[in-house]
Dipeptidase (Streptomyces glaucus), 379 residues
Amino acid sequence: MADLQDDLHPAPAAGELDDPSEPFPGPGAPPLPPEPYPSVCDLDEGLLHRARALLAAHPVADGYNGLPWALRHLSWYDLELGESAVDTDVPRLRQGHVGALFCALHLPEGRYGDQAVGTTLEQMDLVKTVARGLPEHLRPAHGAGRTADARNCGRVAVLLGPAPATALGDSLGILRSLHTLGLQVLTLTGVSWAGETGLTRFGEETVREMNRLGVLADLSGAHPETIRRTLAVSRAPVLCTRSAARALRPHPANLPDDLLADLGAAGGLCMVPLTTEQTGPTVRDVADHLDHVREIAGPACVGLSGTYDAPGAHPRELGDISGYPRLIAELLRRGWTETDLALLTWGNVQRVLRGGDFTARATQQRRQPSTATITALDG
């Protein structure tokens, strides 16, 4: 918190953004139902201005973006001038005040072993190629320091991951190789060593090796026993890159209150996704989830995950990555303090990245690279 307080300073003036507008009903259409309270479209322009100013000083660190897989299916695209075929491009990143972007390395169902590793490597290469082709806007980053450096230079920090654990091929050597290439986050699902019974011996060794390297564990979609055991084994903070509150919406990837409390107590981070399936159809629904996670887990445990360019629809007023000022304006209307908002957008992600970096430095002094294999530990 002390580091965050040092970062708080008067925000620079931010550019204006046109107000969003609701679709106008056609002739003969039934009237729109009354709003329980003013919609985002009716927010006072002062709130939107405050939101943009706050984001100019404390931009969004977006925890999950599916752009790498989306770009694989396009024969041509222009992210610098704008690309209508995707939800994410440079103009909309700027409008949304995004300062860091975690690029998900998607693996389709049924890809394992060499196929999974190869597909992951191809996406990592694509992300780096795109970022290096736009040096005035994007910068590849790993860890807290380089992420902050990119933001301070006016670039969007581009981080690799989360990647599914199937990308490892059950090999800690491949984990080390992916880390060398920049992998930041690994999702502990879809593998035999992280399942309904929790982590196996090889799973625990994998988490320890991730700690040594500085690769953060993502537990979204993981079984509750895996979540609990990872919280016990990991010395670094963990993430849930796409989890909202199950008390508000019973999606399997959303977290019940007891796990939210455990995550907060362990210094982890729940990054609430902006999807209708997990949070609801309006920006107010997203804000409800953020309120709930903050109440149960604490203000240091809540973050944002746009989940753009991934399967699924997004709430009204948040249709692409440019919509973050509208969400922040809604939270300001609800009474969120600027300190809590600065934690939500940027500070909490930086804290987790710093925790991963610190744990890696400390662990490397007392632990050599693991030579364990799944055959030796789990039979």
Q: What stands out?
A: Residues 283 and 317 are 7 Å apart (CA to CA). The chain has one domain: 39-374. Confidence is low (pLDDT under 50) at residues 1-40.
